Structures are given as C-alpha cells and as structure tokens.
What does this fold into?
Amino acid sequence: MRAGLFGGTFNPIHKGHLMAAEQVLERFSLDRLYIIPCREPPHKSPDYLAPAADRVHMVRLALPADSRYYISEVEIRRSGPSYTIDTVTHFADTVVPGATLFLVMGMDAFLEIHTWRRWLELLEWVQPVVVTRRLDGESDADTDRSIMDESIRTRLSGDYTYNEKNGCWQNPHEACIHLLQTLPVAVSSSQVRRRIKTGKPIAGLVPPAVKAYIEEKELYR
Ligand code: ATP
It folds into this structure.
C-alpha cells in the first residue's frame, strides 16, 4: 500500500492544492491520498480561520469523484495545535499500518520543515514529496533543485545526496526526499481570502462548488 498524506489549513481549498494532489497521486502511483485539514496550524496565524466544519466541507465539495481520495478529520478531532508527527504516527500505527507513507507539501512548507516538532523522526517515517510552488507562476527546474539541495544539506543533514537513478535525495538509511516539478498554479488561500474581502472575483481560483459554498455561508468577508 502506498499512501499519501496531504495536510494543510485548506482555508479554503483551492486549485493549487488540487493540482498538487492529482499530480502526486499519479506520479507516485498512490493507492490512497488522505487530505488532512488541520485544527490549528502550528506555523502560521491566518488573518481569519474559517470554522473547521466549513473547511472540511469545502474539501469534500472540491475533491474529484475518485475513490483514491480520502478526507481525514484526525487533526480536527485532536485538541491543540496540529503537529504532523502526531498525525503521521497515527496513520502508521492505526490507519494504514505497513504502508509506505508519502508526505505531500509545497516547497514553501518544506523549507521550514526543520522547525517542525520532531522533524528528524518525521523524516524516518515518511518520504516528503515536495511540490514546486511559485506565486508568480514561473517555474525553473534547475533553480528549484538547487534551492532544495542547499536547504537539505544546510538545514537538515549533510548526509543526504541526490540519487540520480532514484530521482530523490537519500541518506545512508535510505530515507528519501522527492521533488515533484509541476506546472505551478499561482494561487494561495490568503490570496483567495484577500480577494473576497476586497470584493474581487475568485472564479478560476477555487472549484465552482467551493465558490458557491463560500458565498452561501458568507465566509471570508
Ligand atoms: P495561506 O495562503 O493561507 O498561507 P496556502 O495556500 O499555503 O495558505 P495551505 O492549506 O496552508 O494553503 O497549504 C497546504 C499545503 O499545500 C502546503 O504544503 C502548501 O505549500 C501547499 N500548497 C498550497 N498552495 C499550493 C500551490 N498553489 N501549489 C503547490 N502547493 C501548494
């Protein structure tokens, strides 16, 4: 079993998230991809955090009808800040024991992974899949790879080297870090929230059902 874990605030879910999810699912031949909205993001304080039930509902509305997608409310149910290590150990122990776990994240998130709780241990449990992300929509494969390389060696460990054959960074224990070059979708949740607040259209940034739900519930105004 190959399972992906894709955590985030999803405040709200947008087309950048959906693109990342779809590409990781296909490129890593995942059997399942769990979308995991967090209760309280430990690393950022958004200007406004919509109620968890609304964020989960928007994820439900946004996901394609594909049985490989799952929504997990494990972080919503757990009190306090949502630490990824707690979520990962929960999946490894009880949800998909024995599965190979991939942790999906944008490059912005990966560049801060060394500040996450028990990050060294985390890297032993999961293989990060880092999705390129640029808000200006431009992508440059060589730059992305050298940013990752520098970040891994200086912030994580000098033990990692890029393995051309496997297409990932590996350490002597064969822990892997993957970089998935994608056509970046230049959208962020904060941009969506800002546009709503200033009365600008959000069509094209979120799926139509999510847009309709935001309007109906008057979220982010
Ligand atoms: P905000 O703008 O409020 O900070 P966000 O758009 O970064 O939110 P999150 O829910 O915090 O959304 O992101 C969850 C994960 O999805 C993170 O790992 C983030 O890097 C990744 N992600 C978000 N948007 C994109 C995108 N456009 N392309 C690739 N990855 C993305």
Notes: The chain has a mean pLDDT of 93. Residues 141-156 form the longest helix (16 residues). The pocket of adenosine-5'-triphosphate is lined by residues 8-11, 16-17, 20, 44, 46, 105-106, 108-109, 131, 133, 184-185, 187-190 (CB under 6 Å).
